[in-house]
Write a structure and sequence with these properties.
single chain; alpha+beta; 60s Ribosomal Protein L30, Chain: A; Phosphoribosyl-aminoimidazole Synthetase, Chain A, domain 2; 2 domains; 8-stranded mixed beta sheet; 4-stranded mixed beta sheet; 8 helices; 14 strands; disordered N terminus
């Protein structure tokens, strides 16, 4: 059921918007959260024998989203999904989220019957938070010339049991969840829509027939259930989420583990709309990449999401590439051409 808008953001200032957020966040699950929005600090209470996993992610207008391309609900969803995906990669149970927003004043003001941009942003964020039992426990607000959302996610994991990037060993097999390249393909299609509807819709209207194709970009699904399953069964020897692209993120795993990897191009689970290049380098798929022993019984799906073996871990040898792509034309170095800030 869509949450009703109270109109508290109709130009009534920071305190009214804070009260609106506090009211809307109050109904979320509070497992592990002793005290939420309203005091100087939130109080968290992990279970006995757990340690906290903490991650933070920035979403910046013009860099991670565009106000003229992305609906506010999608911006809110994506902002939270980024951090939840990090928790999934560690096998952590979400405990709480903290949101700091810097917004131009016009994004906090409703126009006619249309709710303010910030209220629609919260629709998307809180819907995903509810799905993963992640209460919004605090944050900050400020007026800013640029729209910025900073998310801090806190998760809990049994002490010493978190899945790390550093545990892969030669001889192990390499797996991914879901399909690859869908986010990059969706972004390219969204750009085409924005160009085609320029001057008529801002952001562009999404035709129903394209909703599924754009969903991996606009509404990526963090693999919390899959991460928890892998951690509970101790199957994954190393793991991380695919936020910057397979070619880049797999390089990170190899660096942290001191190994090399071989990826079989024919085994890549391509999204139906994606090219191989988008699957290798596109980024923002938020699938899990993990390694497991060659003798481990890894299922073909976990919690309804397909699992695909895409390669193996090999010894690191001087003069050899960290990641090799096995193709019908022979082995080729797989350079990291995914996303990297400042590059």
């Amino acid at each position: 059921m869509k949450q009703a808008h109270s109109g508290a953001a109709r130009g009534r200032g920071e305190r009214a918007l804070l009260d609106e957020i506090r009211q809307r966040a109050a109904g979320a699950s509070r497992a592990g959260l002793r005290l939420g929005i309203g005091d100087d600090c939130a109080l968290l209470a992990p279970r006995r024998g757990e340690e906290l996993a903490v991650t933070t992610d920035l979403s910046i207008a013009g860099r991670h989203f565009r106000l003229d391309w992305h609906q506010p609900e999608a911006v809110g969803h994506r902002a939270l999904a980024r951090g939840l995906s990090d928790l999934a990669a560690m096998g952590a149970r979400p405990v709480a989220a903290f949101l700091s927003l810097g917004l131009p004043r016009e994004l906090t003001v409703a126009t006619g019957r249309r709710p303010a941009w910030v209220e629609r942003f919260l629709d998307g964020l809180l819907a995903l938070a509810k799905l993963h039992n992640t209460p919004l426990a605090g944050g900050d607000l400020a007026e800013s010339p640029l729209a910025v959302a900073d998310i801090v996610l806190v998760g809990a994991v049994p002490r010493g049991r978190a899945m790390l990037r550093s545990g892969a060993k030669a001889g192990e097999l390499l797996y991914v969840t879901g399909a690859l390249g869908g986010a990059a393909a969706g972004l390219a299609r969204l750009a085409e829509l924005a160009e085609a509807q320029h001057g008529r819709a801002n952001p562009p209207r999404i035709p129903k027939k394209l909703a599924a194709q754009l969903a991996p970009h606009l509404y990526p699904q963090p693999r919390i259930a899959q991460g928890l399953w892998l951690r509970r069964r101790g199957l994954a020897t190393a793991a991380l989420d695919l936020s910057d692209g397979l070619s880049t993120d797999l390089g990170h795993l190899c660096t942290e583990s001191g190994v090399s990897a071989e990826v079989d191009a024919a085994r890549l689970p391509l999204h139906p709309a994606a090219t191989q290049a988008q699957a290798l380098h596109g980024g923002e798929d938020y699938e899990l990449l993990f390694t497991a022993s060659a003798t481990a019984r890894v299922p073909c799906s976990i919690a309804g999401v397909k699992i695909t073996r895409i390669g193996r871990i090999v010894k690191l040898r001087r003069g050899q590439p960290a990641v090799t792509l096995l193709t019908p034309q022979g082995p080729q170095p797989l350079a990291p051409h995914g996303w990297e800030h400042f590059s």
